[in-house]
Write a structure and sequence with these properties.
The protein is of the alpha/beta class. It folds into two domains: about 230 residues, Aldolase class I (TIM Barrel, Alpha-Beta Barrel); about 70 residues, no CATH class. About 45% of the residues lie in helices and about 15% in strands. The strands form two sheets. An eight-stranded parallel sheet has the order 1-9-8-6-5-4-3-2. A three-stranded antiparallel sheet has the order 7-11-10, covered by helices on one side. α3 packs parallel to α4, α6 crosses α7 and α11 runs antiparallel to α12. The longest helix is centred in the C-terminal third of the chain and has 21 residues.
């Protein structure tokens, strides 16, 4: 895809970024996506500093292609994570969950490209002011932590494209080549795909979690815990406990106590389908199998190029303008 802004910016073959998901995005997933021509991301949000260092080194050994690290800016050991990516010579960092102003200049000083994840056009403008190199606009359909605005990808991408001229990556609800093409028609330069890669052979998620996602159906994911931090979850026993607490007008402190610690690890990484927090996007309902990354990439690209040709040539998309 010569001439594509995301491909040119990151030095990759296809404008497909793999989401840096907690408990899913380790070195095996990141290196596999990069080796297939996309941009693999290590998800630092579920890693202690020493583990992130190990995953970066493993990724370097497994691929010679560009890769990056996703760092949530609210992470308690953020300074250590920043130091590690600088020291290890990582060239691409995706930041999220906070203001990009604090670290973008520092990362740029060390030759690191910065993309920041946002959920509104207003935040996109702030990203441009902060000097980031690209924006990930993530719609309401996405799994995990989500924007309070509840803006869908279909609405968000045109709004962000209107607000900024920065390279734009669409995220949220994208798991197919047709979905990829549709967001690029709306103004995105590339896509970030999370859930589809979370349910791959190379994902570090537990097999119980992967099977649960494959067996899920339309409507099985809902945005929850809005009073603390909105997060999209699959229905399970824990989800029902949260929903009951919210319907009983539980206080923020009571919700925090119910959540406790390590719920996402328990569900996604350890496979506890009852007490774990099962974070996944709405596209879970159209994910029907666990596949190797190479097959996922092939399917995405094949469908993308087929849909692109259909759009140009098929009468299905044509009508009179009179």
């Amino acid at each position: 895809m010569s001439g594509n802004r995301i491909c040119n910016l990151f030095g990759i073959k296809y404008p497909i970024v793999q989401g840096g998901m907690v408990w899913c995005s380790g070195w095996r997933l990141a290196s596999s996506v990069s080796n297939c021509g996309g941009l693999g991301l290590i998800g630092a949000g579920s890693m202690h500093p020493e583990l992130l260092e190990e995953h970066i080194r493993q990724t370097k050994s497994a691929t010679k292609k560009p890769f990056g690290v996703n760092i949530p800016l609210l992470y308690p050991e953020i300074e250590k994570l920043i130091d590690i990516v600088i020291r290890e010579g990582v060239k691409i960092v995706f930041t999220s969950a906070g203001s990009p102003k604090k670290y973008t200049s520092l990362l740029h000083e060390h030759g690191i490209l910065v993309a920041h994840v946002i959920s509104s056009a207003a935040f996109a403008i702030k990203c441009e002011e902060a000097g980031v190199d690209a924006i990930v606009a993530e719609g309401f359909e996405a799994g995990g932590h989500n924007g309070r605005e509840e803006t869908t990808t279909l609405t968000l991408i045109p709004a962000v494209r209107k607000a900024t001229s920065l390279p734009l990556i669409a995220a949220g609800g994208i798991a197919t080549g047709r979905g990829m093409l549709s967001t690029m028609i709306l103004g995105a330069d590339g896509v970030q795909i999370g859930s589809r890669f979370a349910i791959s052979n190379e994902s570090s998620a537990h097999e119980n979690f992967k099977k649960y996602v494959v067996n899920s159906r339309e409507g099985d994911t809902l945005l929850s815990i809005k009073d603390l931090t909105p997060v999209r979850l699959l229905r399970n026993k824990f989800f029902e406990q949260v929903r009951q607490a919210e319907s009983n007008c539980a206080s923020k402190e009571e919700l925090k106590q119910l959540l406790g610690k390590g719920r996402a690890k328990k569900g996604i990484f350890e496979g506890d389908l009852n007490e774990g927090e099962l974070e996944i996007g709405q596209v879970a309902s159209i994910i029907d199998d666990v596949l190797p990354v190479a097959e996922i990439m092939d399917a995405l690209l094949s469908e993308y190029f087929t849909a692109q040709k259909e759009l140009l040539n098929s009468s299905h998309y044509q009508f009179d303008n009179e």
